[in-house]
Amino acid sequence: MTDDAPLPPEELERRLRAIGEERYHIHHPFHHLLHGGRLTKGQVQAWALNRYYYQASIPAKDASLIARLPTPALRREWRRRLADHDGDGEHPGGVERWLRLTDGLGLDRDYVTSLRGLLPGTRFAVDAYVNFVKYRSVLEAVASSLTEMFSPDIISQRVAGMLRGYDFVSAETLAYFTPRLTQAPQDVRFALDYVKREARTRAEQEQVMDALRFKCDLLWAQLDALHFAYVAPALPPPGAFRPGTPP
Q1: Sign of CA dihedral 179, 180, 185, 186
Q2: CATH number of the domain residue 104 falls in
Q3: Domain region containing 139
Q4: Residue 35 falls within a domain, yes or no?
Q5: Best CA proximity match to 65, nearest among 3, 5, 140, 119
Q6: What is the pLDDT of residues 69-121, one digit of tens each?
Q7: Which pathway is recorded for this entry (predicted)?
Q8: Distance from first CA to last CA of the chain, Å, rounded?
Q9: Total structural domains in the chain?
Q10: What is the pTM of this model?
Q11: Rounded to an integer, what distance in angstroms lies between the CA atom of residue 216 and that of residue 200?
């Protein structure tokens, strides 16, 4: 096989999975602290508050992609994802379940949704993801969702570790994660089949792999921001959430 020859679909999948094994944020030091029960309640609150912006931005990201999808089948798939996060008017979606998590951690909901306590690094990373999906090719946008291949492992670690390590969380607090154990694999099957089918040239396959690296990097960057602000020097930037201080 020459360097510019397309990879067989199974080799593309193998390389995508290798990217996750190397770069997924399950390896980040903040992740180990969080799931190992070694953070304070304030540090866990900071994680949940900042992660809210990511969760709340996913529907905007998906809506921008729906507008560019060329077929009814593709639009139906992404409408399902939109409902998973926004809810359907009767059943709560992922955004509402995340707010129940921040409620359970004792954060004021109006403060969380106002985004006043957000770290700059969180805002820049999440906005970069939304803009990536909005402006890059449909193939790259779909490929950027493939971090879901690795999320069941991190969810299992997160729920088990936090229930074991923190007396201020409960199964109800962490109820956001339960539906994701079935939603994420469904999302992955569709997206993985799509990129393996639609990335027909080696250049397109490289774009797919680069899109997954980008998504892994921005998830890592969010934890970098949290670790630097709340763990390493424990000095949040001006205006950011400060544990124990009224907003």
Answers
A1: positive
A2: 1.20.910.10
A3: 23-230
A4: yes
A5: 140
A6: 999 999 999 999 998 889 887 788 889 999 999 999 999 999 999 999 999 99
A7: Cofactor biosynthesis; pyrroloquinoline quinone biosynthesis
A8: 59
A9: 1
A10: 0.92
A11: 23
- Owner of token pair 């770069």: 23
Q: How far apart are CA 10 and CA 18, in angstroms?
A: 12
Residues near 185 by Cβ (< 8 Å), separated by ≥ 6? 148, 152
Could you give the CA distance from residue 182 to residue 187 in angstroms, rounded to a whole number? 9
Q: Who contacts 96 (Cβ-Cβ below 8 Å, separation ≥6)?
A: 87
The two tokens of residue 201 are 């040239």
Q: No. of H helices and E strands in the chain?
A: 11, 0
Could you give the CA distance from residue 166 to residue 125 in angstroms, rounded to a whole number?
Answer: 28
Reading the block at residue 53, the tokens are: 């912006």
**Quick check: is 188 in a domain?**
yes
- Is position 2 within any domain? no
DSSP H helices, the chain, are 9-23, 29-35, 41-66, 72-86, 94-104, 109-114, 120-135, 138-143, 151-165, 177-198, 202-230
Task: Work out the angle between the directed axes of helices 9-23 and 177-198 (0-180°, nearest 10).
Answer: 140
- Asked whether residue 32 is domain-assigned, the answer is yes
Backbone torsion region of residue 234, taken as left when φ is above 0, otherwise alpha when ψ lies between -120 and 50, otherwise beta: left
> pLDDT category, 24, cuts 50, 70, 90?
very high
